[in-house]
Write a structure and sequence with these properties.
Distance between the termini: 178 Å
CATH superfamily of the largest domain: Histidine kinase-like ATPase, C-terminal domain
Shape: rod-shaped
Strand order of the largest sheet: 12-14-16-18-17-15
Helix content: 40-55%
Low-confidence stretches: 475-479, 521-527, 569-586
CATH class of the largest domain: Alpha Beta
Radius of gyration: 56 Å
Mean pLDDT: 78
Number of strands: 23
Length: 720
């Protein structure tokens, strides 16, 4: 028999080892050569057998140990192992598999594997086994298996097809419980879905940015903010989205974020269409995750607009309150100072009458009168700013007033300056005092001329008068400053005076309408022109708008509200309430008529008493209302008429008038006031006041009013 080479070599080595063992053994008496050889062969063979038996025994021990290790590994492996027959019956299953299925192993053997599969997965499981047999002999799939206690778990089956005896096949299955993994995967899936849902439905935008500034994840909200698609943004860096004016500032914020871990700041981003919008970024830096930035972005464009509008309104409110306080202060001082001037002017006139035309003091008295008249004009401007000057508003069109004002301006306009006037053909009617509107135009143009002076270029002043509808024409830009609140919805006549002068900075804006504030050198202006414009405009319920930048000139716009039919009736009634401009050509010769005069200013009482007495009247003057009323109660018939101031401590002029009418119902009453409002005009007749007199012209006007009332009394007596 021809043995394989390795077997033959093995036997040779075994024989050599046996011979060495015999040679080393002790020998007795030598035998004959043939017997010795035979004995030697037997000994060698015996040793060979013993060595083979020992090797076999060791191999059997190793095999038993290996079998035990295999059984342990098989039975207690972390996976369940099953062997299925060709028809799908369980032929073998390890202890782990039985434990996973929570069934006794003996009861699982020779049972169809599909019986432990939930009903919904059984058909799919059968198709899977067929695919393994018909395919490449191995595959992996997941099924729900049912335990012996009725519970269900997610299982992963790794199937391998193997050959069996008699040309058959068997299927080896590794069974893994993946329930916990599936729960984790489901929780992760839900977390990711929630993450996506939050990102795509949140009002704020979201970025995930790597350390190189590349966008790794973007929410749909930010896509809508920027106008870019997600694909476009994924190919960009954050620097591509930063507006140029905030790029450096944002880079500084990024450095701070890396150092501190988080930051919140405002910046500006650029949309796909090139427009810029304001955002607030809340950024967190995660260095352990490849240096990524988590960025939440809020579009604050509307918030910034509202904040700007709120700040503008607050500034306008502060400006309005400041000017109102200044107006109240200035008006109060001017009102009292006007009484002083009235006393000076009245006494100067009396002194001139006393000294005659040839007296040496006449020249000094004339100069006093001139200076007092200038002071009186200044007081009138202050009263206009304080909205305490007389306003006789009528329903008019502003076009004739503006055109007449332009004619006056052209006679005095500086050389080298052009004046352009343009009035729209159709304008809303407004309730206005034409004299004061003219004063607005003259003051604004005078201010424009002074702004142009010294610019070294041709000067240009434009006057425009347009119809304006706030709802149709919209609002002005952010450079506009409203001095008395924004323009409310409605129609307006808009007066614009624009110049190409040096313009104004923000600091000048803040003091523009304050009395006596001026940027002109000494002797070039009093600082009252624009203050008067403000007072007149507010008195007309108009809104002033100023638009100016250094080097770009200035535009003043004044919006006068359109008059209504109700305004028309008020205008018509008002024409007869104030008689400042009514004069009488005839000189009244007083016949001792008795006049009651009430004013809290003693100097005015003393002056008027002297002035009226020189005209032939008898005058009883009082500085206390109670004393005056007591005198009338004592003898009501002795007085021909009463004159009272309106603004007095204690009882007002209206209360004095009511008390006088209760004593004597037919007593004519004249009331003087430095601030005649629509409310006062309505209340005066009801209180029994026959005539209202504007107080800045106290002396002359009051004397005229007294004469008119006496003349009216005489006419009534003749008729009677």
């Amino acid at each position: 028999m021809n043995l394989p080479e390795d077997k033959e070599q093995h036997d040779l080595r075994l024989r050599a080892a046996a011979e060495r063992q015999i040679d080393n053994a002790p020998k007795d008496e030598p035998l004959a050569r043939p017997a010795e050889e035979l004995l030697h062969e037997l000994q060698v063979h015996q040793v060979e057998l013993e060595m083979q038996n020992e090797a076999l025994r060791q191999a059997q021990i190793a095999l038993a140990e290996s079998r035990d290790r295999y059984v342990d590994l098989y039975e207690f492996a972390p996976l369940g192992y099953l062997t299925l027959s060709a028809d799908g019956m369980i032929e073998e299953i390890n202890l782990t598999g039985a434990t996973l299925l929570r069934r006794e192993r003996e009861k699982l053997l020779q049972r169809s594997f599909t019986s432990v599969v939930v009903a919904e997965d059984q058909d799919r499981c059968i198709r899977h086994f067929l695919d393994v047999k018909q395919g490449d002999g191995q595959d992996r799939e997941e099924f729900e298996l049912q335990r012996g206690d009725g519970t269900v778990f997610q299982a992963q089956l790794d199937c391998v097809l193997q050959k069996a005896g008699a040309g058959g096949t068997a299927m080896r299955i590794a069974l893994t419980d993946i329930s916990e993994r599936k729960q984790v995967e489901e929780a992760l899936r839900e977390s990711e879905e929630m993450h996506r849902s939050i990102l795509h439905t949140a009002m704020d935008g979201f970025w995930l940015v790597d350390a190189e500034g590349r966008l790794q994840e973007i929410s749909e909200t930010y896509c809508r903010m920027s106008g870019y698609s997600e694909q476009e943004l994924m190919a960009m860096r954050i620097t591509d989205l930063e507006a140029a004016e905030t790029a450096d500032e944002t880079a500084s914020h990024i450095k701070n974020i890396i150092a501190r871990g988080e930051d919140r700041f405002q910046t500006r981003h650029r949309r796909k269409d090139g427009s810029v919008f304001d955002v607030e970024a809340s950024v967190q830096y995660r260095p352990l995750k490849c240096g990524r930035f988590v960025v939440f972005i809020q579009d604050i464009t509307e918030r910034k607009r509202i904040e700007a509008a709120k700040a503008t309104l607050e500034a306008q409110l502060r400006e309005s309150q400041k000017l109102q306080a200044l107006g109240t202060l200035a008006g109060g001082i001017a009102h009292d100072f006007n009484n002083v001037l009235a006393t000076i002017l009245g006494n100067v006139e009396l002194a001139r009458q006393d000294v005659g035309l040839a007296h040496s003091a006449l020249e000094s008295l004339t100069e006093i009168s001139k200076a007092s008249q200038r002071a009186k004009h200044l007081v009138e401007q202050i009263l206009a700013f304080g909205r305490r000057s007389l306003i006789e508003r009528k329903m008019i069109s502003l076009a004739p007033v503006v055109e007449e004002s332009a004619k006056l301006l052209r006679t005095t306009q500086p050389a080298g300056l052009s004046l352009n006037v343009e009035c729209a053909p159709i304008l809303p009617m407004v309730l206005a005092d034409s004299t004061q509107i003219q004063q607005i135009v003259l003051n604004l143009c005078s201010n424009a001329w002074q702004a142009i002076e010294g610019q070294g270029r041709p000067g240009r002043v434009e006057i425009r008068l347009d119809a304006y509808d706030q709802e149709l024409d919209g609002v002005c830009d952010s450079q506009t400053v409203f001095t008395s609140g924004p323009v409310q919805p409605g129609r307006y006549a808009c007066l614009t005076v624009r110049d190409n002068g040096g313009g104004m900075d923000k600091a000048t804006h803040g003091h523009l309408f304050e009395p006596f504030f001026t940027t002109k050198p000494v002797g070039k202006g009093t600082g009252l022109g624009l203050a008067v414009v403000h007072g007149i405009a507010v008195g007309h319920q108009a809104v002033i708008q100023v638009q100016s930048k250094p080097g770009e000139g200035t535009a003043f716009r004044i919006y006068f509200p359109e008059a209504t039919s109700a305004d028309s009736s008020i205008s018509a009634e008002g024409q007869h309430e104030v008689s400042k401009h009514e004069t009488d050509a005839l000189v009244l010769q007083a016949n001792g008529e008795h006049v009651l005069y009430v004013d809290d200013d003693e100097s005015i009482v003393f002056l008027m008493k002297r002035m009226l007495e020189r005209k032939g009247f008898r005058v009883s003057g009082y500085t206390k209302q109670d004393d005056a009323l007591a005198a009338v109660r004592a003898d009501p018939s002795q007085f021909s008429l009463a004159v009272t101031d309106y603004n007095m401590p204690g009882m007002s002029g209206l209360e004095v008038a009511r008390a006088l009418r209760q004593i004597r119902a037919d007593l004519p009453i004249v009331m003087a006031s430095g601030y005649i409002t629509e409310e006062l005009r309505a209340q005066a007749p009801a209180a029994g006041v026959s005539e209202l007199v504007f107080k800045p012209d106290t002396v002359g006007e009051l004397c005229d009013a007294v004469e008119r009332q006496v003349r009216a009394q005489r006419a009534n007596k003749k008729i009677g």
